[in-house]
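protien #1 (seq + structre)
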Amino acid sequence: MALSARNVPDTLQELWELLVAYAKQETVDPLRNLGRYLGYGVGGMLLLALGTFLLGLSLLRVLQSMTGDVFDGFWSWVPYLAPVLFYGIVIAVAVSRIGKGGLGTPAPAADARATP
């Protein structure tokens, strides 16, 4: 069945609408989902950073107030070393986890050829 001259504009209009709907489906919707994913990620990162900072600060305050005269005089700098070490350990753990998947992902299997 041949298309009449009257159906060609309608077909082109329908084709244009289909193209626009497909472009929105493949670009705008995934970007909207990505924005939501990034929003939750940034929010979680900020909360974890704040919690880690407060833990380090509380460690410092405990060492300053609960140890009595142990860290007086020359040793007054020692309580400040504890949060630095704590933050260093947290950073080391975070860096070691980069690119290895989540905590629930199984470790990659050892190479069978490397068995002794």
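ok now protien #2
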Amino acid sequence: MLNVCFVLFQEFFRQSDAEKLEGLPVTPFMDRDKITKPSSQCSFIGLVLLPLFEALGALLPELQVSGL
């Protein structure tokens, strides 16, 4: 079985390589020359997952946890 993290990193690196070839800004957590696995995971959580869950919570308030 493939490691999900490994597969995601491969996709992120392909994306950043394509961005570099096109002269576009590279997505921060996808640049193979600048990231480590822990820093990339923290960036992915902060830039993708957290906003996604906040939007889902606003759209579906029954998903929000109260009392924390």
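The mean pLDDT is 85.
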